[in-house]
Amino acid sequence: MQEQLQKLEVELREVTKNKEKLRKNLLELVEYTHMLRITKTFLKRNVEFEPTYEEFPALENDSLLDYSCMQRLGAKLGFVSGLIQQGKVEAFERMLWRACKGYTIVTYAELDESLEDPETGEVIKWYVFLISFWGEQIGHKVKKICDCYHCHIYPYPNTAEERREIQEGLNTRIQDLYTVLHKTEDYLRQVLCKAAESVCSRVVQVRKMKAIYHMLNMCSFDVTNKCLIAEVWCPEVDLPGLRRALEEGSRESGATIPSFMNTIPTKETPPTLIRTNKFTEGFQNIVDAYGVGSYREVNPALFTIITFPFLFAVMFGDFGHGFVMFLFALLLVLNENHPKLSQSQEILRMFFNGRYILLLMGLFSVYTGLIYNDCFSKSVNIFGSGWNVSAMYSSSHSEEEHKMVLWNDSTIRHSRTLQLDPNIPGVFRGPYPFGIDPIWNLATNRLTFLNSFKMKMSVILGIIHMTFGVTLGIFNHLHFRKKFNIYLVSVPEILFMLCIFGYLIFMIIYKWLAYSAETSREAPSILIEFINMFLFPSSETHGLYPGQAHVQRVLLALTVLSVPVLFLGKPLFLLWLHNGRSCFGMSRSGYTLVRKDSEEEVSLLGSQDIEEGSNRMEEGCREVTCEEFNFGEILMTQTIHSIEYCLGCISNTASYLRLWALSLAHAQLSDVLWAMLMRVGLRVDTTYGVLLLLPVMAFFAVLTIFILLVMEGLSAFLHAIRLHWVEFQNKFYVGAGTKFVPFSFSLLSSKFSNDDNIA
């Protein structure tokens, strides 16, 4: 390959050099042709003769520009002709006047077209000049000045016949140069096209060779055995495949000494490998953007597949908008093998890479839109409303009906709003089968009802989500054999969460179930009851249920007791272990090192089990770790973690209210867009209604896509990411690992793909 490229390089250099020479000669001949054409009009020569010296004649009737007149002046006349750039004309003429003291006549004219400079290749405007001078000394000065101003000097013919012969010769040479240049360009194009056929394959081949040698340079060289030793990480399930690959490579290469593989024990933390497919890759990228998981740590991407699109849909809940998003993602999924999509612009490629995320986000938005009964800000009456308006009307005016506040003719005529009373028999016939009743779309207190519903729903979802995150931390502790973290960290955290905020969920659900429309006015406020739980009011309140005060005192006592355990339990236990005590429910054998050189690991390494029977090793380990153990640092770390958790339970619960806020904002934006566009278009009369409705619908569709789908969708997407990173993953996910990046030609690093200097 190197010999072929060198031959090709030499050939291309020679051809290109010859082409540049031919092009330069062609440009000079073209300039010469223009110079002869224009200077022909400067002086008229009627007779061919050589200049001589004679007496000065009378000059009354002769022109100074006439050649015969100049001859009679008795001077030896000379000419210098050529081309000069447009910007240098004035300075050139001034210099000639000063240097030659007026013994020159300069005549110039501008060319009609711009010409390319043979030296620089720049297309500029040129002037043709003709300088007439007397004497050889002045001629030398003129030529030096022309050289200083980079003028292109060409010989000037003395006779008309000579001019004609030069013109004919120039035309012939220009025609020949055009022919030669065309053939040279064709040959150069053929050589380049032939070379371009193998450029891609050669570039790939060179990049692969560079990558291989880069990896070989990372190996250790054994001088005695004259072999390379590579220490690599390999997944355990791929070890048989690696062994077969080494045997096959040794056999095909004909090596006398076969390559072999040995597994070696190590205390280093392995990199993290999580196998994904095209469906799970997008969700795993969301988790990896927060941090690559530690080795064998619980991977939240599995649960993110469901929780992420669901929380997005809670904020984006609209049946129509979700269905449009679902169709767009489905179109990308069905055409995922199309090459233009994977090689498109950055924004479209971003949508393409997250097509399965968009698909689930749209599908879950359809579900929550049906729950909210919201389709482009309008409700859909699928199963029939559970409210009966006719039961509220009565034409009579009996006292019993007056107590039930029924409607009559006077009420209907004079009241701007009518109120439905569910306590009246026949008005409320039961809940809507799925979602919110469509009659709420007509109610004036619709926003108040939806705000109360969505706010409580956000709190419930948030507390469940965070509690699930704390529970996942237990599986980390079980796998890494740190059961003391379960009793001293996870259990107090769960008690703190459930005794306060879990009880809040209980009160919300209990109030929904225990109170009906008839007793709704007697129902106490959940907010007041929740505040009274911490204030211990002196006066007895009605409460939600009997014995509420005793239950709340017990829950508050458990909360208070869990805080010191959370602050001091783990540091004191590790100190106890470090001083030589045995660990209940924990065995040293099979322990896996996860975080290297942490204080917790030091204390665990210092507490060897008696079951191992290695007292000498135990004493040596303690001698090494006694100096490294720092109880103050462990206590400070646990204190910071406990304060962050306790305060975070409150702030994170409030953070989940963004589910309610963004859902409210999306619904209100949809309502405003419908009221300002579609309602106006639909209210126009039938004469011009159709003509106006088409552009209104088009404008409504554009605003819906760009404002409600793109901007609101991006906002809900970012808030869903924040809820997962800060509120959910922070409870159990460390994300301090190193991603396993195996050697692969398809995953060549940028320094191989973007390196222009291929060596």
Automatic annotation (TrEMBL):
<dbReference type="Pfam" id="PF01496">
    <property type="entry name" value="V_ATPase_I"/>
</dbReference>
<keyword id="KW-0472">Membrane</keyword>
<feature type="coiled-coil region">
    <location>
        <begin position="5"/>
        <end position="32"/>
    </location>
</feature>
<feature type="transmembrane region" description="Helical">
    <location>
        <begin position="688"/>
        <end position="711"/>
    </location>
</feature>
<dbReference type="InterPro" id="IPR002490">
    <property type="entry name" value="V-ATPase_116kDa_su"/>
</dbReference>
<dbReference type="GO" id="GO:0046961">
    <property type="term" value="F:proton-transporting ATPase activity, rotational mechanism"/>
</dbReference>
<comment type="function">
    <text>Essential component of the vacuolar proton pump (V-ATPase), a multimeric enzyme that catalyzes the translocation of protons across the membranes. Required for assembly and activity of the V-ATPase.</text>
</comment>
<keyword id="KW-0375">Hydrogen ion transport</keyword>
<protein>
    <recommendedName>
        <fullName>V-type proton ATPase subunit a</fullName>
    </recommendedName>
</protein>
<keyword id="KW-0406">Ion transport</keyword>
<dbReference type="GO" id="GO:0000220">
    <property type="term" value="C:vacuolar proton-transporting V-type ATPase, V0 domain"/>
</dbReference>
<keyword id="KW-1133">Transmembrane helix</keyword>
<feature type="transmembrane region" description="Helical">
    <location>
        <begin position="355"/>
        <end position="372"/>
    </location>
</feature>
<dbReference type="GO" id="GO:0005886">
    <property type="term" value="C:plasma membrane"/>
</dbReference>
<feature type="transmembrane region" description="Helical">
    <location>
        <begin position="457"/>
        <end position="475"/>
    </location>
</feature>
<dbReference type="GO" id="GO:0051117">
    <property type="term" value="F:ATPase binding"/>
</dbReference>
<feature type="transmembrane region" description="Helical">
    <location>
        <begin position="487"/>
        <end position="510"/>
    </location>
</feature>
<keyword id="KW-0813">Transport</keyword>
<feature type="transmembrane region" description="Helical">
    <location>
        <begin position="310"/>
        <end position="334"/>
    </location>
</feature>
<dbReference type="InterPro" id="IPR026028">
    <property type="entry name" value="V-type_ATPase_116kDa_su_euka"/>
</dbReference>
<keyword id="KW-0175">Coiled coil</keyword>
<dbReference type="GO" id="GO:0007035">
    <property type="term" value="P:vacuolar acidification"/>
</dbReference>
<feature type="transmembrane region" description="Helical">
    <location>
        <begin position="554"/>
        <end position="577"/>
    </location>
</feature>
<comment type="similarity">
    <text>Belongs to the V-ATPase 116 kDa subunit family.</text>
</comment>
<keyword id="KW-0812">Transmembrane</keyword>
